[in-house]
Amino acid sequence: MESKEFTLIQLKKTLRQLGLSQRGNKIELMKRLYEQDPSGQWKDVARAACEEETEQPQLRSRSESHSTSEIANEDERSGERSRHVQRTPLPDAESEREDFRETRMILDMDVEAVRRERDLLRREIELLRLERNHAIRTERSAERHC
């Protein structure tokens, strides 16, 4: 799998377009896509999402500047000066924030799982040390009695 070829956002957009779950890490998302479409045609959808991402900021900035100048002109014509132009949040911005929150939550859960596993391994190492020390003491004691 070419995990570096696609971003997490591209994979999630592709999964959303295909109506699949967007939960999981990058490898899990790619696995889900390959399970759904073993031929790999989903990659074209993901690449299109990538191209769409690079084109949208240019389109947005043009349309936003045009809208902003129209609003300013209307305000000037009516004699009112607009100091602040409110912009509505972009529809994709909310979904990207949600994707970020979801990814952050998953990463936090992964970190917590790794910490727990580390703590368990430390306890296991300590138990093995105790068992080894006990075996050494028992062996020495048996040698003295012989």
UniProtKB/TrEMBL annotation:
One Pfam family cited in the UniProt record for this chain: SAP
Matching InterPro entries: SAP_dom (IPR003034), SAP_dom_sf (IPR036361)
Ranges annotated as biased composition (Basic and acidic residues): 74-83
Domain SAP stretches: 3-37
Cited Gene3D superfamilies: SAP domain
Highest rank taxon of the organism: Eukaryota
Region ranges (Disordered): 37-100
Protein name in the entry: SAP domain-containing protein
Species assigned in the record: Harpegnathos saltator
